[in-house]
Amino acid sequence: MSARLQLADAPALAHATRRTRTTRIALALVLAGLVAAAALAARGGGTPVAKAAAARKNLEIVLDLSGSVTSDKSGKMGHVLDALQREARGGTVGLVLFSDAGQETLPPGSSPSQLDPFIRYFSDPRRSTRNPWSNGFSAGTGISKGVAVARHALRRDHATGRVVIVSDLGEAFDDRASLARELRALSGMRGVHIQVYPLPVTDNNGLTFVRSVLGREAISTVVQRPPRAEGHRSSPGFPLALVALAAVAALALAANELFAVSLRWRTA
């Protein structure tokens, strides 16, 4: 059993004791909330991809990886991707690759910087004829497959913006009915605008067919390419939320030192 020391002036300290206890409980709750908020912000890494796609205009790229395109080492594909990445600054991108099948590679709402590896690969004239997707694609052409994957991705993530089809338009004749159906379905989505960037080896018959479905204005023949600053790389956004939480935590600690002063004793 511990002994108690009776103080004649203890009642005079009651107000300071209550103030200290109340202040510290309040600050402890604030700090616990800040720690939880910081953990959630760090785990999320910013705005979720799907929410980013819905909140800002998205540039959805549908990229042809058929044999006739990937065998071209002139760098035109890298040029187009580089230009599209620049156009997407301040927004988001999505990327669908297709040959005989479609494959979603970047979901709508992705950062434009995630196109960097594709730009480097398709800009390299020394790259191997066998590309990284050779095992998954047969090198045939099924544009409708790529358009269908892009349409489902945009609908799933409630994304709007431009859809850019980059292809030589060497379309298989038996895929044309499906392609026309998919293009019309995509163009019918609210807030979605379709453009086609024909590559230099464009099949004139395929180009004529796509133009008959989408109209002449959907075909783009020139992609602007502003000069790339040497050493430029996209960087992650500044973690403003975490800095703000840290500042509030520092203020809470300062308030603790100011208002919740510990009682000190000394002998007479």
Describe the structure.
With 268 residues, the protein is of the alpha/beta class. It has 2 domains: 16-41 and 244-259; 49-218, Rossmann fold. Helices cover 44% and strands 14% of the residues. It contains 9 helices and 5 strands; from the N terminus they run ααβααββααβαβαα. The protein has helices spanning 14-44, 49-55, 67-70, 76-87, 116-123, 143-156, 176-187, 204-214, 240-259, and strands at 58-64, 92-98, 102-110, 161-167, 192-198. Strands 3-2-1-4-5 form a 5-stranded mixed β-sheet, sandwiched between helices. It is elongated and about 100 Å long. The two termini are 27 Å apart. The model is unreliable at 49-55 and 224-238 (pLDDT under 50).
Summed over residues and divided by their number, the pLDDT gives a mean of: 77
Q: Bin the strand percentage.
A: 5-15%
The CATH topology of the largest domain: Rossmann fold
Rg from C-alpha positions? 30 Å
Strand element count:
5
Helix percentage: 40-55%
Taken from the alpha-carbon principal axes, the silhouette is: elongated
The CATH superfamily of the largest domain is von Willebrand factor, type A domain
Instruction: Give, in spatial order, the strands making up the sheet with the most strands.
Output: 3-2-1-4-5
Written as H for each helix and E for each strand, in order along the chain, the element string is HHEHHEEHHEHEHH
CATH architecture type of the largest domain? 3-Layer(aba) Sandwich
Number of helices in the DSSP assignment = 9
**In terms of per-residue confidence, which ranges show pLDDT below 50 for 5 or more consecutive residues?**
49-55, 224-238
Number of domains: 2
